[in-house]
Design brief:
- The protein is α/β, with parallel strands linked by helices.
- The radius of gyration is 19 Å and the shape is globular.
- It starts with a strand and ends with a helix.
């Protein structure tokens, strides 16, 4: 299967001061998709400009024609399925059916406490995620939904006319644990991983590849349990969080080597961060553009 190359554009630039230009350039460079992070603030960027994901994607939808657009990833930390579904249906309409929802259980960062709640434990996040995804699936495929759950309630939630993409826009489910992988197997059109976070500081690229191999095998088992062919799911690697860090973006050859090793594991899409100076995502813009235009062709 051919490998697709996508990018993630952090929402740090005012739209009229470089924001629009990045999304348009992503389309010009031929990326399969451009994603953004759905956070209220994030890590080292928390004291600088950071714009909302869905308004940014709406603007990007009106500034591009072919590029797929999406989140990597949306989580229950500050989202509710009912309001999220309405916004996604609207965004899918505005984009002409180009939206992918990357969705995950969330973590312990700023998003987890900004609304005044205590950060959820991993089990509590998994419990909520296990209810969030099925309800969102219903909301995006049914005209009216009523459901009372342990965490989320919908009372005759109306979502007419539904998504442009049928039966709904695709879910790219970020997961590494057994419950999340089962959700990916049942509801996902794609699966997303960043690798094994325990290897980021001390691990080696070789250990990371083996960890990712183990994750893909677990995904295969989850699919088998649900009676689904794992080949039906795209496998998406969001880069920048493995021991390789920024080295794959140092040259076209380095990226081709990195991408080839991960394509051999079954990954169908690799996502690289748009360069941001003086950050963990700093990279030579010229090399980045050469990777975008030349690397996939060299993989054969």
């Amino acid at each position: 299967m051919s490998l697709r190359l996508s990018t993630v554009i952090l929402p740090v630039d005012p739209w009229h001061e470089g924001g629009r230009a990045k999304w348009q350039r992503a389309e010009e460079l031929g990326f399969h998709a451009a994603y953004t992070y759905d956070h209220l603030s994030w890590r080292t960027f928390r004291d600088g400009p950071w714009f909302g994901a869905l308004p940014t994607l709406t603007a990007a939808a009106t500034a591009t024609d072919r590029l797929r657009l999406g989140t990597l990833v949306t989580s229950p930390n500050f989202r509710h399925p009912v309001t999220l579904a309405k916004e996604l249906i609207s965004l899918d309409d505005i984009s002409g059916g180009r939206i992918t929802l990357g969705i995950g259980a969330g973590g312990n960062g700023f998003d987890a406490t900004v609304l005044g709640q205590e950060a959820w434990t991993p089990k509590e996040r998994a419990d909520r995620f296990g209810e969030f995804v099925p309800l969102l699936d219903r909301l995006l495929t049914e005209g009216a939904v009523s459901q009372r759950g342990d965490f989320y309630t919908a009372e005759e939630a109306r979502n007419i006319p539904g998504c442009v993409q049928r039966p709904r826009l695709p879910f790219a489910v970020a997961a590494t644990g057994p419950r999340g992988l089962r959700l990916a197997a049942r509801y996902g059109q794609a699966w997303v991983t960043t690798g094994d976070p325990k290897l980021y500081e001390e691990g080696t690229p070789e250990q990371s590849v083996e960890a990712l191999r183990g994750q893909t095998e677990k995904l295969g088992k989850a699919c088998a349990e649900t009676g689904r062919d794992v080949a039906d799911l795209d496998k998406v690697l969001l880069t920048g969080f493995t021991p390789d860090r920024g080295r794959p973006l140092e040259s076209v050859d380095a990226f081709v080597d990195f991408a080839g090793r991960h394509r051999a594991l079954g990954f169908t899409e690799i996502v690289i961060h748009w360069p941001i100076p003086d950050s963990d995502f700093a990279a030579d813009p010229g090399v980045f553009e050469r990777i975008a235009t030349e690397a996939v062709g060299q993989l054969g």
